[in-house]
Amino acid sequence: MAIYTKTGDKGSTSLYDGVRVGKDDVRVESYGTVDELGAYLGLATNFMDDEEMIREIRAIQNQLFVVNENLATQDPEKVLHHIKEEDIQILEMLVDKYMVKSAAFDGFVLNGTSKAAAALQVARTICRRAERRIVALDRVADVDPLVKQFVNRLADTIYAYARACEKEKIKVDFDQEFTAQFK
Asked: Which of 23, 39, 106, 112 is most buried by its number of CB atoms within 10 A?
């Protein structure tokens, strides 16, 4: 079976419910960014040794398909799978779990003192971009509030994963003389 359909050659694509929209439609931007997030989470797992964290991230990647089903379906009656309150509670539990595992630290830290942490920090920023695209979509179409909550909490979860994976906690020094670092 060929994966190309040629139906998008002129700049449009089909949503899950068959509605055709431009490839630059805010709905496509929303689910496309969530798709990018899922791919980057997969990349991050390649730098991890923590099998429990990998298993959790794989479950999150799977749940992102539920998020995308909601975002990529214009007719809410045709959405078959939904984000539930308990999904958000699980993310909150993960945040609490991994913030306890990461050493207590007050303030901002430099990102990326391990490959896993660096990849997760990029995934976190992609998640925040997805959230902004979903908020933009919600201005023109109804988005399930639980989808918005899930993505918001997911960014916090990814941050907690990243903090737990940092090898060092290097505090941001707002008072450092930038040019002195290069002399």
From this structure: 112
Q: Within 13 Å of residue 165, how many CA atoms lie on the same side as its CB? A: 27
Alpha carbon distance 39, 123 (integer Å): 9
Q: Which two tokens stand for residue 73?
A: 């379906």
Q: What is the spatial distance between Cα 86 and Cα 161, in angstroms, rounded to a whole number?
A: 20
* 41 token code pair: 């989470």
Whether the pLDDT of residue 90 is over 90: the answer is yes
15: helix, strand or coil: coil
Listed residue (18, 22, 28) closest to 8, CA to CA: 22
Distance CA 131, CA 29 (A): 11
Contact 114, 105 (CB under 8 A): no
Residue 89 is classified by DSSP as H
| Angle value at C-alpha 77, between 126 and 9, nearest 5 degrees | 55
* pTM for the model: 0.90
